[in-house]
Structure formats: C-alpha cells, structure tokens
TrEMBL record:
This is Dihydrolipoyl dehydrogenase. Belongs to the class-I pyridine nucleotide-disulfide oxidoreductase family. Gene3D superfamilies: 3.30.390.30, FAD/NAD(P)-binding domain. GO terms for molecular function: dihydrolipoyl dehydrogenase (NADH) activity; flavin adenine dinucleotide binding. It comes from Hibiscus trionum. The keyword Flavoprotein applies. Residues 47-371 form the FAD/NAD(P)-binding domain.
Amino acid sequence: MGLANLARRKAYLLSRNLSNSPADALKYSSSLTNFSRGFASGSEENDVVVIGGGPGGYVAAIKAAQLGLKTTCIEKRGALGGTCLNVGCIPSKALLHSSHMYHEAKHSFASHGVKVSSVEVDLPSMMAQKDKAVSNLTRGIEGLFKKNKVTYVKGYGKFISPSEVSVDALEGGSTVVKGKNIIIATGSDVKSLPGITIDEKRIVSSTGALALSEVPKKLIVIGAGYIGLEMGSVWGRLGSEVTVVEFASDIVPTMDAEIRKQFQRSLEKQKMTFMLKTKVVGVDTSGNGVKLTVEPAAGGEQTTLEADVVLVSAGRTPFTAGLGLDKIGVETDKVGRILVNERFVTNVSGVHAIGDVIPGPMLAHKAEEDGVACVEFIAGKHGHVDYDKVPGVVYTHPEVASVGKTEEQVKALGIDYRVGKFPFLANSRAKAIDDAEGIVKILAEKESDKILGVHIMAPNAGELIHEAVIAINYDASSEDIARVCHAHPTMSEALKEAAMATYDKPIHI
C-alpha cells in the first residue's frame, strides 16, 4: 500500500512541474519580462512588489527573485522578519528555552546528580540573549536579500493604484514603487478587547510580555490559546503566580479533546490556574496593580482578581490599516481578511495576498508556504498549499503538536476510523532522561488505514511531528510508519509504536 501511495505522489509532484495551459501561461507570463536591477523609483517597474517583510513577505520576495523576477520588498518596521521574528515566535522561544533551563536547574538537576548551591534569575541577561538572537536573525534576512538581489525599502507602503505603492520612508520623504504584481503580506496584529487598554506596562500584549523588566508576582493571562499558554509558562517558571482566564469551556479549543485534557492537567501540575467559561467585565488600573472584575460567561456573580501584570492574549486580527485597500477596491470578509482565489489573487487584477491577512491558520510557516506558492503562480508555475496538512505546535513543556484532523472532526465527518496510542511512559529514551510525560495518538481511516490525524504531547513534540506531516502529505497509512525502522533509543519510536497500535498491536505496552 505504501508503494502505491508513493507512486501516486510522484505522479502528482511531476504534474506540479509541468507548465500551465497556454491560456494560463499567456495570462501570467507578463511577470517574466526582464528589467535591469536597481532601486525602485517612480520610473522603474518591478515584476513583484511585496508589502511586508515578515515570514510570508520576505520568503515570497526571495523566492520571486530566485525565479528571475525583479523584486522589491517594503517593510515599515525597519527590521525584517515581521511579528514572528521581532516580537513573536523567535523571542518567545528564546525565553521559553531560557526559563526552562532555569526551571530544570532549580527542580531537576539534583535528581540527575548535579548539585548547585543556588540558582537565581538574571532577567536582564536573559532578555539580552533573546535580543541578540533576534538581531542576528534579522540581519541574516537582510543578507539573504542582498544575496538574491531583492531591493529592500524601509517605510510604510499604501496603494495609490493596483500597480503603484506610495512609501513613506522611515528616513523621511516618500517614493512610489511600481509593480506588475503586488503581494500584500502585512501579517496580523494583537486583537484588543472592549474596555481594556493595552499600555505594555501593566496591561500588556504578547509584545510587552516579552520585555517585562521584572518577574511579576501575579500574572493574569486573558485567553488560553497558544500564545497565552506559552507566555504564561515563561513567567510561571520564573516565579509568577499565573491565572488564565478563558471565555470558552476549554483551553486551545482547536486541539484534540483527549490531548487537551492531558495537556491542561500537565499545566495545572506546573501551578497554572485556569478559570474557564469566564469573561472579563471590568478593569481597574487606578492602584499600583491591576484589578479585573470577572463573571461566568453565562452571567452570574462577579469576582475580583488582582495582578501585577495582565496579559491580553485573545487572538490576532489581520493588519491592513492604512494600506488603501478601499481605494483600489480590494474585497475583505466581515473580520477584515482579504479574499483571494486559489492563486492568491484578490478581486483586483495584479494584487495578491498571503499569510495572516487571508483566511487560514495564522501561522508563520503557513505564511511562508503561501509566499512560495503565490510567486510560483506569478512566474507561470504551479503552487500548492494544503491548509488541512499544516502542523501546529504549542511550545510549552511538554510541547503539543498536531497535524490533520482531531478525533472530534473525524467523528463529525462520519468516517469509520481506528485510533492508536502510545504513552511516553513506555518509551525507553523518555524514561532514560526522566522526561516521560505525554502520548502519541494516531487516527486512521478504518478501511484504507490512511492516516487522518496525528497528535503528540511530549518534550520536543514540535520536532517529532514532522514525520507525521510527511506521512499525511504522502497519503501514507499507519502501517507505512510502523514498518519503517526507527533508531533505538529515540523519542520517535513512540510514533512507530502508536502506528503499530493503530493497524495491529504495539510491542512495548
């Protein structure tokens, strides 16, 4: 079965490399005209102009240049990498790692025979390490732009026509950048809540939570999604008393329910407190700290919570302010997402959009794939992104990673399925390193054994998930994974055993 799936996949990949129909080629070939390279100005036209230098935008710009297209990227921040690199994915992972090292030193070293007289947090040094990582990576992207001959314009871009972008330069003045194809890749911003003003000091977004000057004694997190739980973990490890307030009945509502329950129990063991089905109805910042008035989501008796810092982590919203979309007639949906077709083209010819500003998962790696596929279409090739096969990771400890469908989604579709599970308590590597909390869960179609979804809670689950991502993209069966030799002892053997449990029986439990 696995060989048949591989043959089908090879045929599909070959088809992706074939040219489009003559009509499609004619429609998109205008972007291939060669121009001399140089800095964009009102008299020069680019094949591709990208507004936004985040993961989607800078990857799209580099890929376009690699495909031979004259490319300019416009970025208002003055530092490439977008929210992800500057105030999101990268700095948060730096703090997650540093805080985990502190927590391990304080709570786990002794059991491994490593004794230290005292352990303390040096927050300025921790923040300096984070900032250094961010700085090095942003400079690295600028180096990639130079290597691939992408013109980089620092400033705020807005449309003056479907083929022209006016840029207010960070250094002063303005210029007009022209392009046959313009890609909107402006990402997303923090979603605000009514009646709560974020000052990035006592009431902070994820940006402020990454730059606190001291460890708060009490931290309240509004929102039990990926970002809130990650930042709550950082400060909880460093000594904060963390309370998470969530309007919904569950944390991370998109997560597989069985995994979610185990995940919540794990976080509770780490002294994170949850108030679910709870809404914030009032905020008082008149004193030294912050007082939140909360009540049950369905209504009822109100209570007051006190904190030194409140983190608002209620999701993100597409960032399109000031782009002039209404001026050129670009259509959006009711929540502000730009509507595109399968080629990432908006209703305005020559104007494209990718990443967080369009429907789909708001994830950096999804935006990157959008960027590559979009410019492949512009260059007359075939791009492809399957949003049902994009992995998601919560970078706490243990991590939770998933790809494909949850058990609840499979049931709702009426698919006959089988489930295979394997706990890390039965994995030799996990036991050897004394870090065995977690499980692998595989869902497969009953008749064909095709894998429908994989969910992992474990240390480094974000790395382990990619074997499953490949399997799902190649329409593999659980038996395909089970019959692949996995090195021993490794954490990835748990995935093999879960696959064995799905189509037959595991060995080690």
